[in-house]
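protien #1 (seq + structre)
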Amino acid sequence: MRILLTLIGSLLFITGVQAQTRDTIKLTLQQVDSLFLTNNFRLLVSRYQVRSDSALIKQARLWDNPEFTAEFGMNSWSHPKLSVGNQGQTAYSIDQVIKLAGQRNKNIALATLNADYSEASFEELMRTLKWELHKAFTEYYFQNRTIKVLKEQQLVLDRIVLAYSKADSSGSVAHADYIRLAQLQMSLKNDYLSALSRLMDQQQILQQLLGTARPVNPIMEAKQYSVPVLSEITLEQLIGQALKERPEIRLSGIDQKTAAINYSLQKALAVPNLHVGVIYDKNSSVVHNYMGLTMGVELPFWNRNQGNIRRASLQIEQSAIKWQQTQNVITTQVISAFNKFQQYREAFTPGALSAFQDSFSILIDKVAQNFTKGNITLLQFIDFFNSYSDNFNDQNGYYSALYDALNDLEYAVGAPFINH
């Protein structure tokens, strides 16, 4: 029994290090951001959309093509025969549409706003994807720290259970103690597998967002692994920055400008376009080789674009309400994210968790020593064993939630304001 207790004590703090595959990429948060900008497939597709919409500006600047019409004489109805010789009849005309009331310039302005909208949409997509990336990065990092502790405990407990199994067979330990340890082993394995499943989900998100099939191993430098402080930043400043930086504000502003220009365009479309052209008639006119200037205009008797003008007017009012809604949504999002982050930030003083963990590790070491000496029972040992892993889980869970709250706040503001 004495040998068994000594074996358990010596195995308690064996450090199990998970080997990384040869192809694993170790990346800091800054390196992840850089790889994200160049490799993310959704961003690459969105960039092409921005470029394609920008090409429509050039298209809007082009004039409408002139229309060419040719007429060839066919003698008479009773004797149809194509007659295009010297005595035959041919006529030609060219017609050019000239858009009035500034329609062309308004279409150019709309195409420009459409390109601006695509660019702002690209920025919004990038902001959202980066938020998902940072969330996956921090959750993977701290989840992996938890898994390492669970793996260490699992290796230790597996050997303890094996030793107790042999001792139980020889009758040197109580069978109930062996059953209790076996149950703890099963529970620990379930915790490990659940944590590993969540880690694999985050790994998949990281690989998809970074456009790589290679495993990604997030790392944090020593200077990064600290509790961020908002000492010189007020809530009002963050709200002001959000109302300036958020792509939704730009999108909403573009919607308002688009509605205004579209209303102006619809009114301009009520003005008939002018058709200007020339006509040549060989033998059918009052003189041979007749040349004439043509001018035409639509007569707006019934259709004066009334419906589209009314619709455009309502869209202006609608865009104004959406602008107010966007401002309200952004303001409330910043307030909520700020309060959430502050609650997590103020839950512990800087260094408190690390100091507590160091003290707890010393305590566990003493517990192990007393257990090997038989000064504490198996149930007491198991209780401290569970507390040790729970402490690591709680600490990693807190840091993960803290950095998630910071990530949510930066997402709400629309731009990073703390050097990670």
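ok now protien #2
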Amino acid sequence: MSTAISAQSLKADFRHRPPEMLVDSATNQLSGPLKDIIEEAAQQLGHSIDWSVVPFARSLNNLRSHGTDIVPRVIRNDEREKFVQYVGPISEQVKNIMFVTRSDGADVKSYSDLSGLNIGVKRGTAYFKQFDQDNSLRKVVVNDDFNLARMLQAKRIDAIVVLDMGALESEFKATNFTGYKSATYFYPNRIGNYYGMPKNHPLSGAFNQKLEEMVKSGRVAEIYSKYGLTAK
């Protein structure tokens, strides 16, 4: 268990999730408010953080096996409650879960319109309970936005369920693909922005208290503002 190796150097997983988490593909440099916030909290608690770029599905397995100490931006759901200790939230926002189709495809006007479509979903991502538990839908599971965007462009899927529209749009932009549209139907969703730690992690209480202090003092909002963002 990483928590037993050293209380001074904590393992943390990172992934490209603009605009809050950024991985520069040329230099592999990591940046973003979620990195800065947890690093500052760790420093004030006397710890350092060793980052690794890891796909989110593997990060969930790392949390389950105690193979990592911290994963930014873990959405709370019933299944993850069994093995994730949630720290935060540092913010809360209404973030609609969207469905994206090709511009030349049929509109999705209601949940029932999803029936019969090949829907791209991101491995390990929780969307909303009805959708997540609906085994009648044809879901095509892939690892990342890179593949989702290109599969829609190639007509290998009919729609994509999207939690982070900005990340998907950046992939469309990378290939100059403009032939997509947001469906009429969406799921309104209020989510907390949590860090995940393994269940019963000995430092979760200290981090939770420190992040709460940073939120109340305005420090979290200040860090977000450095990136031209607002902590909602």
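The chain is about 30% helix and 25% strand.
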